[in-house]
Write a structure and sequence with these properties.
Blueprint (H helix, E strand, L loop, with lengths): L2 H10 L11 H12 L3 E5 L7 H6 L3 E6 L2 H8 L9 E3 L11 E6 L10 H12 L2 E12 L3 H6 L1 E8 L3 E10 L4 E10 L2 E10 L3 H10 L3 E6 L13 E7 L1
Parallel strand pairs: 1-2, 1-4, 2-3, 4-5
Antiparallel strand pairs: 5-11, 6-7, 7-8, 8-9, 10-11
Length: about 240
């Protein structure tokens, strides 16, 4: 974990669960249907927003996460102490396995930062999937305006007492996003820097082939919405 990643997760851990995603129930439902009561591994398990509801459905979930601060928040929640979590890089950690379902949500796959690391992650997952298992990745399509201008400023949240800005520089050669989430409030200015690397759907499919997997399904969201050229987000399901 580089210094930017370490700083980002240290600062965001305390407020991460404040931003409740409306698609969380649909995410849990989708993944539970694939796990079918078996064993799952969550990459970048974080504070357990997805893992804990899955365990309530009788699915045994293990986790990998690079941030001890995020996992500490998981441990504080009911049932969080019972989930086996390995601290480390999800592209390299040798989880016990095998697993019927491996998944990574909320664009966390992009936090690996380089194409090499993302390819290694596919290989790591493929080595731990059962013959009928699935690898599920949620990701996004870059906004065309980002690629044209090479940078952007986006207001993520505008409230009475604080404003959240996403300020990003885009390198279209490496597909790297140097991001800083900036919070302006009466308490002053707080910065949450992070580096990510966006991936195109076709690039993910090639990474899967290199690891001996292939695309089984692709949707524009967790509700099974059709994936079209206008889609900005996508959920891909890979298997042997």
């Amino acid at each position: 974990m580089n210094n930017d990643q370490r700083l980002f997760f240290q600062r965001i851990a305390g407020t991460y669960d404040d931003d409740e995603r409306p698609d969380t129930p649909a995410t849990v439902e989708f993944l539970a249907s694939l796990a079918d009561g078996a064993r799952a591994l969550e990459l970048a398990i974080g504070t357990g927003r997805i893992a804990l509801p899955l365990t309530e459905r009788g699915i045994v979930v293990d986790g990998i996460d690079i941030s001890p601060d995020m996992v500490d928040r998981l441990r504080e929640k009911p049932g969080g102490a019972e989930i086996a979590v390995t601290i480390g890089d999800m592209a390299a950690v040798e989880a016990e396995g095998p697993y019927d379902l491996v998944y990574v949500v909320y664009n966390s796959f992009c936090n690996l930062g380089t194409q090499d690391a993302q390819v290694r992650c596919f290989e790591n997952v493929a080595a731990r999937l059962t013959e009928t298992g699935c690898f599920v990745i949620e990701s996004f399509i870059p906004n065309p305006e980002w690629l044209r201008d090479g940078q952007y400023v986006h207001a993520e949240h505008i409230g009475i007492d604080q404003v959240w800005l996403d300020i990003t520089r885009v390198d279209t050669i490496t597909q790297r996003l140097d991001e800083s989430h900036v919070v302006l409030s009466d308490e002053g200015v707080r910065l949450f820097p992070v580096v990510t690397r966006y991936v195109w759907p076709s690039e993910l499919d090639l990474m899967a082939r290199l690891a001996g997997l292939h695309l089984k399904q692709r949707w524009a969201g967790w509700g099974g919405e059709p994936f079209t050229p206008e889609s900005r987000d996508f959920v891909s399901v890979y298997g042997r």
